[in-house]
Amino acid sequence: MARTVFCQKLQKEAEGLGFQLYPGEIGEKIFNNISKEAWAQWQHKQTMLINEKHLNMMDPEHRTFLEEQMVGFLFENKDVEIEGYRPPEK
């Protein structure tokens, strides 16, 4: 049986993550308050950010930047600014 959480990003009850995917307090907060669907949206944005900004996950500054973007996206309703990326026209 899948666990449900009230997703802070999507503002609705939704299927939660199967396990904590991110370390520490932030990871716990994500596990308890972010749905699988919202996490998938973040993963998509994260991939674009890493590629666009040529982030190196071995670089602590890059990891900090990515974490700030993640927290903003998941909890503060901030969109991720990706230069050079234009959403497809509707």
Descriptive keywords:
iron, iron ion binding, globular, 90 residues, YggX-like, 9% strand, Fe_traffick_prot_YggX_sf, two-stranded antiparallel sheet, 3 helices, mainly alpha, Fe_traffick_prot_YggX
Order of helical and strand elements: EEHHH
CATH class: Mainly Alpha
- For the largest beta sheet, what order do the strands appear in spatially? 1-2
Distance between the termini: 37 Å
At CATH level 3, the topology is: YggX-like
Instruction: Please give the share of residues in helix.
Output: 40-55%
The coarse silhouette is globular
Q: Mean of residue pLDDT?
A: 92
Low-confidence sequence ranges: none
Per DSSP, the total helix count is: 3
What is the count of β-strands? 2
Q: Which architecture would the CATH scheme give at its second level? A: Orthogonal Bundle
Structural class: mainly alpha
The CATH H-level superfamily is Fe(II) trafficking protein YggX
Radius of gyration: 14 Å
Pfam families: Iron_traffic
Protein name: Probable Fe(2+)-trafficking protein
Keywords: Iron
InterPro entries: Fe_traffick_prot_YggX, Fe_traffick_prot_YggX_sf
